[in-house]
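Section: protein folds

Sequence with per-residue tokens
===
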Amino acid sequence: MWRNKGVAAVLFIFGLASCSGDDIGQGTVGYVQGFFGAVAADEPNAVLIGRDVLTAGGTAADAAVALYFALSVTLPSVASLGGGGVCLVHDPQSGKVEALDFIAPASAQTTQGATRPSAVPANARGMAALHARYGIVDWRELLVPAERLARFGHPLSRAFTRDLQLAAEPLLQDPESRRIFGGLHGGPLSEGAQLRQLDLAAILTLIRTKGAGEFYTGPLARRIAEATQSAGGSLTSDDLRFFLPRWRVPVSILYGNDVISFAPPPAAVGLTAGQMWQMLTTDDRYGSTPAAERPHLLAEVAKRAFAERTRWMAIDGNTKLPSAALVSSARARQLMATYQPTRATPISDLNPPPRAFRENAAGASFVVVDNFGQAVACSFTMYELFGNGRIAPGTGIVLAASPNNRERNPLSLGPMMISNTHVRTFRLAVAGSGGAAVSNAMMAIAMRTIIDRLPLEEAMNLPRIHHGGVPDIVLAETDAGKQIVQGLIARGHRVREGASLGKFNAIYCPSGLPGVEADLQCAVAHDFRGAGLVAHADE
């Protein structure tokens, strides 16, 4: 059964108790026999839809597809059809993990009158690729819930309302955005208000009935490109036609009998977090470090990882050096050779010094697992909150901003996954958002869960710190505690308190999944820093 202390009250409030399935058959929402899986995501309405797909006997990929399209309706600020992302998928048949790259590129050329350059919408084709390889439920059934949410409306969740309030002043200057997201008195809609998106519902109807390809070719693609250009965007029909998602080999690290998998560049969290993992675990450095020293260790490891990112990252965001060498234990030992337990290493001593990049903290993520051990972990971005701040008229699609090297980039994308290829089991998936802090926070969660063996929710909720290389400052969450802050300052770190560092979703099965039902103890958690939900399906 599922173990997740502290979540039971939330499950009860939202009515997530599953039914026995004695009088309904597989493929029907509500059908449950034993453990059927779990889902955690940033927006509650979408979580419930993912849960329903699992209880109907769908795979984790099926649930992920339905969940994503629901997010495009309920959390369009960071997961609109206009954006892109990356997923990791554990295949229980082969025991391997694959990476699905559908990161939204910039338009091939800036169209005349493009005052708000936009990215090429990538999510629909990304989800189609996921479903084609790993789904079993009919595509049309998976899109029905999202279409209904858009057509008949849904109450605004706290998660979306927070984003709307943050962006309201510039966003509502756009007439189309004001028409959809504006309230009666000129301000934004408030939490609990009913939101209907009829134009978006019509687009989802076409994707449901004709497939995702309809979005990228033919009359609908021309309609979307023209609407984008009328909103000041830079999208062309050719941009849509030629975009294709890619299945890629993840960055992988052996750890005992397990494999740690990360998304490959240009989703730069993968190599950055991979190097951090190797520096922390090689020669049991993290496990043998006293608790009082660990914040210092995490900050020093982060400094080195971000300096390394400057070394391996090319202008186009891809790696210039072999990933396997970068995440090797030999390289980890070289990087940590200058580490001192009692003194901070000045940035000037690192070679090369870290390069400064602005990484937008806005994003969305989810994790899903089914009873067969198929797992999906995804991260999404619009490159800015509400993308370029425009909606393509007549489509309801919030347009993603056009990416660039400095300010809007996929550097903070990238989930992680732990599996055992020998026995083909899944153990851990973590995905999140939060800009440059994602790598640091994800490693803190992983270390506390895998090495310290803390309950997942406790590992998720403990205070975090972050060092991004440049500027040479350690960010500490407000509740990090005087002892941690003073310990960092005593070692020569400059510390700034107050930031909220990342927002994550995670699933952890210590004994592996699939497994013996009697021994199955899995946990699912959503970061209290967000306003999402977790749901699980079992008797």
Remarks:
- The chain has 20 helices and 20 strands.
